[in-house]
Write a structure and sequence with these properties.
This protein is an all-alpha fold. 17% of the residues are buried. The protein has one domain. The chain contains two helices and no strands. It starts with 84 loop residues before the first helix and ends in an 8-residue tail after the last helix.
């Protein structure tokens, strides 16, 4: 019996190493109970195409997170993608660039307040 040693749940990222392969149609994540034989765990899942599937011969599955009977299903190890992590990291990076680097918790709050005051004070000319 082969085990899913390198697979993780598409929803929560929990290891699926204890589960036998092939994954059963009604198989669930032991941690979050998400269905595993679903589009979101499949190597053909692609949210950037119309039916969100790169396999042209596959029938359309409307519920991408529900258990299905797709014959083309092949689980992919990198299916877990924490939501919003990339966007929030990019936003933090832009803020750090704008304010001149990340502030530590022991940073000078008065200095930061002064910079903001200078930036948003009415009547101040830019470039000074």
């Amino acid at each position: 019996m082969r085990l899913a040693t390198d697979l993780v749940c598409w929803k929560c990222g929990a290891s699926l190493a204890a589960l036998p392969l092939p994954l059963s149609r009604e198989g669930e994540c032991p941690k979050c109970r998400a269905y595993l034989h679903c589009c979101r765990l499949c190597q053909f899942f692609n949210p950037n195409v119309a039916e969100q599937c790169d396999e042209d011969r596959a029938e359309e599955v409307r519920n991408k997170e529900g258990a299905n009977f797709c014959d083309w299903f092949k689980p992919r190890p990198e299916a877990h993608r924490p939501r919003g992590k990339g966007k929030s990291q990019a936003a933090k990076s832009r803020l750090d660039d704008f304010f001149g680097g990340a502030q530590t918790s022991g940073g000078d709050a008065d200095s930061t307040r002064d910079k903001l005051s200078d930036l948003f004070s009415p009547g101040k000319k830019s470039g000074k």
